[in-house]
Write a structure and sequence with these properties.
By secondary structure, this protein is an alpha/beta fold. Helices cover 43% and strands 23% of the residues. Helix 3 packs across helix 10, helix 5 crosses helix 7 and helix 7 runs parallel beside helix 8. The longest helix has 26 residues.
């Protein structure tokens, strides 16, 4: 049973392969703290091995928990939630999420607090719902959702039922993920990892016409493995970094638009929600709004990239649901 008190707060912890994140949400559902520490990646490299990610989380978590304690001074944590796996699937697993589980169980044990778990993907979707203002409009409704990051390019059907997200995969990339393409091309252009924000800056400097090769989209499935080769060939031919950056973002945006149009062909006027680190890109968001129209929601950039705010929001929702059981 979760204790009821006026100064309660709810804690979320997320330990992805890119970022250590902790967050707190008030009893009224306001995100009070959304704290992050990126995992360090050496120049020229395109990510971390799982052993390296776990070690980086172990180093990051103490300082982040200290900062969280300062942010929620005067409040009382009443429940804890952590992301246990990448997706809501039985075989979904990555060792890096064990780090957050250890921290969450230690915090819960120290105060005899209830502990909940969710997937990293559910946390992303909840953060997007919160920051886009879609929590109320989409409550009880089925909507299309995209989780687009370094580890996923997933097309989903989602229903928000009170405290729970019912998530059904319905398509997405069958090879390379959008974030992987962004990072591989970005590293080849000499950009720091993760490359998304730097690629967006470069793309904003482009003044030339963007080449538009044929997309590799078949129904609800897409192929992004060819994007890296096309982008690097364009770079060899032009040595124009802004043009190459704009080409990559345009290709991904048009691919997502084609997938979303496939969903809406089956369910006209379907609301759409875009989440994940790649979707913090405002250039792509503008193109998707232009191409798709209708009811469409985007997470704010701080809630698009990996974060624990959605996990904390799920913690609050589940904790309050247990009070009503």
């Amino acid at each position: 049973m979760v204790p009821q008190m006026h100064n309660a707060c709810y804690i979320g912890i997320d330990t992805s392969n890119y970022t250590t994140s902790v967050a707190a949400v008030s009893d009224g559902g306001e995100v009070l703290a959304n704290l992050k520490a990126p995992l360090p990646v050496k120049a020229g490299e395109r990510g971390l091995r799982q052993s390296e990610a776990v070690f980086a989380h172990v180093k990051n978590l103490p300082q982040l928990m200290d900062r969280l304690g300062t942010a929620i001074k005067g409040l009382t944590p009443v429940a804890v939630c952590y992301s246990r796996a990448p997706r809501d699937e039985a075989d979904s697993y990555m060792p890096c999420f064990l780090s957050g589980g250890v921290a969450a169980h230690a915090l819960a044990a120290s105060g005899a607090l209830p502990i909940f778990t969710c997937s990293h993907q559910a946390g992303h979707l909840m953060a997007a719902l919160y920051s886009s203002g879609a929590l109320s409009p989409l409550q009880g409704r089925c909507f299309g959702a995209f989780h687009v990051s370094g580890g996923t390019t997933d097309m989903l059907e989602v229903t928000l039922n009170g405290a729970e997200l019912a998530i059904t995969p319905v398509g997405g990339s069958v090879d390379l993920h959008a974030g992987q393409a962004v990072d591989r091309v970005g590293v080849a252009l000499g950009l720091p990892f993760p490359c998304g924000p730097h690629l967006e800056v470069l793309a904003g400097q482009n003044t030339k016409k963007i080449p538009r090769p044929r997309l590799a989209v078949e129904g609800g499935a897409c192929h992004l493995s060819g994007l890296e080769n096309m982008a690097l060939r364009l770079y060899r031919e032009t040595e124009d970094k802004p043009l190459v950056a704009a080409f990559v973002l345009d290709f991904i945006a048009r691919t997502l638009s084609a997938l979303a149009s496939h969903m809406r062909a089956r369910t006209p006027d379907l609301p759409l929600l875009f989440s994940g680190g790649v979707m913090s890109n405002r250039i792509m968001a503008r193109e998707l709004i232009r191409a798709l129209g209708g009811e469409i929601y985007f997470a704010e950039p701080a809630f698009s990239a990996d974060n624990a705010a959605g996990v904390a929001l799920i913690c609050r929702a589940r904790a309050l649901a247990t009070q009503n059981d």
